[in-house]
Amino acid sequence: WRQISFGDEMRVCSGWRRFLLFVPLIFFFPHLISVLEMHQNSTVEDPHHKQTKKFDHLVLGPPAGQGLRDRLQCRGIKALNKTRRSTSSGNFNYGDGIAFVTVFATYNSSIDRQVTSRSNDLVTVGKMSYNKVERSMAILNVFFNFIQVMMPKSNIVVITDPASELPVLRNGVSVFPIQGEYSRDKLMLQRIRSYIAFLQSRLEDHSQWQGKNNHYVFTDSDVAVVDDLGQVFNNYQNFHVALTFRNNKDQPLNSGFIAVRGTPDGLLRAKVLLQEVLKIYSSKYMKASRMLGDQLALAWVVKSNLSFDTKRFTRRQPFVEKIGGASVLFLPCSVYNWTPPEGAGQFHGMPLDVKVVHFKGSRKRLMLESWNFLNSSSSSDISDMLCLILKSGRTKYDF
């Protein structure tokens, strides 16, 4: 028998306390490892999940702007009120014409041909399947379709690389080759250069027009003209260039719509304005995203005018301002450059006087689907088609 000292008792108690403190860790540690693994897996899976969340069919949701007096009201894909159509065709009697101008290039490199030949790259819209090149051509053709339905007397000019294989065989459509660098990463820069070269050519040929003017609307090819734009030149006669604006601090101007009055003065001042934009683009924004540099440069040129009040971009009213030597008409994007994402956001639905719908980003499928819908039934009209766009425009699609 051995007598246990007080010191021994203390050491035993201390050892038991350490053991009891360690016991919860035995149960907690596996749970901690499991949580860390779940977190790691979620960070790996999230980007993939986001990448695949694009739809290959229309997804209808609630239409924005319901209950607002001056917005399109829809029940299903049936319009309860009709959008207001312009009557400018009957009033536009100055003997002047209107031509739409777009820059378009096809890419037929060996890499592109390998990519587009893969069967899993095909997308199907309606009864048609398209690879990447065919998709671009389908969008271009729908661009033609909307213009020729809404403004049958207008012409369309496609500016392209002389080396581009562009099979355009259509009445009222002409190809205008301009030498330049049409690669994807330089396309926005080249677009400004091409606009300048085109305006210069129109200036040189103006003497042959026998007193008539031909006005020009420069647009992206992923737009649908849903009303007659002749009223822009008819109702606002004191401008040289028209731009579209929105309430966006960093990018208040969208370069996807630029109208130019076809008088010698209008053509010249538009050319000089775009030359200034090109200079700013080349000196300040060459490192910007390939789709944003021209818009940032355009905004810089406008805002550099000391008397310009940027608060006017927050209102939905057209206004005219002197920028350099040009008289510039600013038109609201909500009417002349309406887009599905902003329609669900700051535009608060679709105004009844909307004239141009711009299918930016991953909404090219919606452009083709809209045209198919318009032609699917004799009872479908423009307003019903716009309800389809309004209800399905929140979703990103596969192209």
UniProtKB/TrEMBL annotation:
InterPro entries: Nucleotide-diphossugar_trans. The keyword Transmembrane applies. It comes from the Eukaryota. Keywords: Membrane, Transmembrane, Transmembrane helix. The keyword Transmembrane helix applies. The chain crosses the membrane at residues 19-36. This is Uncharacterized protein. It comes from Escallonia rubra.
